[in-house]
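Example S7 (structure tokens).
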């Protein structure tokens, strides 16, 4: 397995894994598959320019992703928000998620003092992964996401670097 930062030229791989994440685990994300699938290639390349997105590659294809975006305000540029963490089903349970979070945290240490994230409280495996890497829950946002299936609460987590 190789984990590396995705660059704008990697937009196709990023689009592939992003759409797979939204299709297979729609309850875990704020966006929806139809909206993202309609975006042009340039939108995916731009996202890779404006945020740090790590991609994991295994067996010759993209197996997972994890990103963060640094806050831009004068008083919050010391932190970044983690988003889009996903491992394709074929690669779950093989350390891909751990490798992505390790790489993401290492990159973030170079530019920010803390990482925050939100994760659906029903996603125990993701919460366990984050806790294993030092993230701590500091609150719960009730009814953070809404879909046809109902509401989902999100745990708010932080890692001080």
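Recovered sequence:
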């Amino acid at each position: 397995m190789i984990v590396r930062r995705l660059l704008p030229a990697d937009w196709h791989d990023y689009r592939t894994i992003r759409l797979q994440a939204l299709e297979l685990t729609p309850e875990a994300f704020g966006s929806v598959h139809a909206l993202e699938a309609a975006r042009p290639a340039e939108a995916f390349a731009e996202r890779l320019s404006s945020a740090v997105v790590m991609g994991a590659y295994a067996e010759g294809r993209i197996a997972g992703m994890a990103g963060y975006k640094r806050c831009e305000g004068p008083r919050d540029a010391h932190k970044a928000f983690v988003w889009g963490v996903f491992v394709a089903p074929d690669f779950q349970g093989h350390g891909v998620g751990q490798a992505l979070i390790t790489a993401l945290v290492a990159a973030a240490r170079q530019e920010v003092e803390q990482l925050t994230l939100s994760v659906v409280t029903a996603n125990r495996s993701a919460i366990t992964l984050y806790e294993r890497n030092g993230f701590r829950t500091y609150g719960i946002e009730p009814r953070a996401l809404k879909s046809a299936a109902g509401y989902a609460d999100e745990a708010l987590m932080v890692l001080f670097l």
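Notes on this example. The radius of gyration is 15 Å.
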